[in-house]
Amino acid sequence: MAISKFQPAEKILEAFDAGQRIFGESRVQELQAKASALPEDIKWHFIGHLQTNKVRQLLAVKSLHLIQSVDSVRLLRLIDTEAERAGTVADVLLEVHVAQEDTKYGFSPAELVDWIMTEEYKSLKATRIRGIMGMASNTDNQEQLTMEFGQLALCFHQVLGVAQLPDFSILSMGMSGDYPIAIAEGSTMVRIGSSIFGER
Ligand SMILES: *Cc1c(COP(=O)(O)O)cnc(C)c1O
Q1: Comparing C-alpha atoms, which of 87, 37, 95, 27 is closest to residue 57?
Q2: 8-state DSSP, 100
Q3: Confidence grade of residue 28 (pLDDT, cut at 50, 70, 90)
Q4: If DSSP states are collapsed to H, E and C, what string results for 183-196?
Q5: Containing H/E element for 44?
Q6: Of all protein residues, whose CA lies closest to atom 6 belonging to ligand 1?
């Protein structure tokens, strides 16, 4: 998929005309503006940190296909409540944190597997958990990248092994600088920004 955050509509349209249909944005307002200005058959993915007060706005975007960055149980519950209220079903990935950089966002692999074991996901009414999304450290160290993508892949397979989630099939990992390693480790979806559009 193409990550179009901070890129102007003309560049997105150029990629669309070349056949690209899946685009990712990291801010709700920017996504809203682009979705209303650009072709309706674009499948928009949300990849940024989602604030709880923006969930309703995000779900109202008609061509929204997947929220990749669900980074807490609290956010997941809120998305479920809002999607049910809106009479839609939200497709989501759970964000898993393995990189060395400190971030407040995302489940650790152990946390995610523990939460899956509680089977709370069975009470979701309007949300389909489609897989996981993760990022590796910002490094050129190939062994480090291989190890981190391997951790994400292991987490994906552990969840697949214990959860009864029929639609759980997406392992979103790999960006411009590291996607060949991510693919080698089992990625099913790479998120490419600067290699397609140039620097932001
Ligand atoms: C910006 C971003 C990307 C794309 O990064 P590039 O290095 O430009 O390919 C991928 N995933 C996430 C979550 C991002 O925020």
Answers
A1: 27
A2: S
A3: very high
A4: HHCCCCECCECHHH
A5: strand 43-46
A6: 193
Cα end-to-end span (Å), the chain = 17
Rounded to 5 degrees, φ, ψ at 61 are: -75, 115
* Structure tokens given for 198: 């140039």
State the closest ligand 1 atom to the C-alpha of 191, by its place in the atom list counted from 1: 10
Q: How far is ligand 1, taken at its centre, from the CA of residue 195, in Å?
A: 10
26 Cα nearest atom in ligand 1: 15
Q: Is 118 exposed, middle or buried (0-12, 13-18, 19+ CB in 10 A)?
A: exposed
State pLDDT tens for residues 82-98. Answer: 999 999 999 999 999 99
Structure tokens at 177: 């600088």
